[in-house]
């Protein structure tokens, strides 16, 4: 019987290996002029609405200057547009353009198709287990904010 650390090590190795091996199949991002982090920014804006540069930096865990460089490139590619907050002109907001929405939709669809190729090889019970475990981990990670960034209360 494996101990908890052995399970974690095996899961990490398998997960990292899986994503490294499918990485080349995710080349559609590059073809669209999009990087992985830009995809996450587009997705976040799509889900939450226009965001402040500072919020985007926090979400990506980078300094505002780093996110500004990324937004510059995304604006050049017409994925996003900057504008000032109506209530506080000092605040710069970032919104998706129609082109950005279109690229995001296409990137999500292509990513889904790549992942689906692998998940379709699992039987329904395995998919059900994977879904429940993934959702449980999502909920645990979601509670990190409630615990000041710490995974689990001690």
From TrEMBL:
<keyword id="KW-0805">Transcription regulation</keyword>
<dbReference type="InterPro" id="IPR036388">
    <property type="entry name" value="WH-like_DNA-bd_sf"/>
</dbReference>
<dbReference type="InterPro" id="IPR036390">
    <property type="entry name" value="WH_DNA-bd_sf"/>
</dbReference>
<feature type="domain" description="HTH marR-type">
    <location>
        <begin position="1"/>
        <end position="139"/>
    </location>
</feature>
<dbReference type="GO" id="GO:0003677">
    <property type="term" value="F:DNA binding"/>
</dbReference>
<keyword id="KW-0238">DNA-binding</keyword>
<dbReference type="InterPro" id="IPR000835">
    <property type="entry name" value="HTH_MarR-typ"/>
</dbReference>
<keyword id="KW-0804">Transcription</keyword>
<protein>
    <submittedName>
        <fullName>MarR family transcriptional regulator</fullName>
    </submittedName>
</protein>
<dbReference type="GO" id="GO:0003700">
    <property type="term" value="F:DNA-binding transcription factor activity"/>
</dbReference>
<dbReference type="Pfam" id="PF01047">
    <property type="entry name" value="MarR"/>
</dbReference>
């Amino acid at each position: 019987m494996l101990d908890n650390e052995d399970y974690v090590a095996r899961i990490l190795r398998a997960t990292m290996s899986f994503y490294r091996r499918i990485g080349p199949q995710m080349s559609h991002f590059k073809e669209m002029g999009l990087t992985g982090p830009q995809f996450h920014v587009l997705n976040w804006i799509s889900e939450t609405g226009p965001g402040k540069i500072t919020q985007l930096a926090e979400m990506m865990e980078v300094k505002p200057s780093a996110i500004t460089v990324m937004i510059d490139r995304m604006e050049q590619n017409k994925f996003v547009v900057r504008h000032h907050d109506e209530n506080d002109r000092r605040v710069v907001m970032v919104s998706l353009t129609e082109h950005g929405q279109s690229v995001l939709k296409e990137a999500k669809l292509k990513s889904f198709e790549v992942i689906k190729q692998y998940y379709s090889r699992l039987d329904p019970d395995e998919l059900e287990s994977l879904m429940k475990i993934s959702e449980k981990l999502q909920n645990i990670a979601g509670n990190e904010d409630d615990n000041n960034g710490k995974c689990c209360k001690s």
